[in-house]
User: What shape does this take?
Amino acid sequence: MLYRRVLLGLGAAGVGTTSYFLDKSPLTGKRRLILWGENVDIYIGQITSENLHTQYKERILYESSIEHQLVKYLSHSIVQEIPIKRDWNVTVIDDPSVNAFVTPDGSIFVFKGLLDIVDSIDELGFILAHECSHVYLRHSANQLSTRGILSVIVMLFQLWLFGDIYNTSMAENLLIILPMSRKCELEADKYALILESKLGLRLEGASSMMSKLKKYELRTELLSTHPLSDHRVKEIIATTMKLKDETTPHDYEVLRLKIAVATKLFEKYEKIRNKR
Ligand SMILES: [Zn+2]
Assistant: This one.
């Protein structure tokens, strides 16, 4: 009996601690669980990005390469619109994978395979804005915190019910972690479109990019960290319609001056790529 009371006490303490660490999302205004401050995000990000640099060190493109310059200047314009401080930096990896990701300290990694399939600066802008949105919205901290607390709650519950601990990570993933990850992806898409509209990037680039990525995805959303492309395109179109109502075509031309350098670099990159 005492054993169960201790578990109950620990459970209650856990719930109390959890509600203390609820943080407000800057995009949705809703409360979500984050157990630490941004300095921890930066620390985790730095370790992760250092490991990634070691892992890919033979294949990192020179900073003078057109690919690095293009990603650097376009990312630079995007992060000017994000109200957080990070030492944003860019790494382009000479690898055919169609992929890009970011670590919470603001280190952006782009694989050359992704650059090979982009047909406009608007498409590339969407991908980079999406990645930077994950940092601003603190998705990684939210997911890591939830995973940690969830494991403790499930463990206590199992001890209380069965007096033993079983491996339930598959069920936790399917029921909580993966749906949460998919929700974060949709949020990053939404904020990426807001960022794009601030830079005069054409929002159609988002849906054309997603349509291209369709062939690289899993067939079922249930087992995936990302929503299916069709689902994302549907949400992207809905957000695009709303943002377009608020912006005139003239605004887009003026705002596009903010990405003038990156636009020139993209034209140069396309010419070089077509000759290869
Ligand atoms: Zn993402």
Residues 265 and 271 are 10 Å apart (CA to CA). The mean pLDDT is 89.
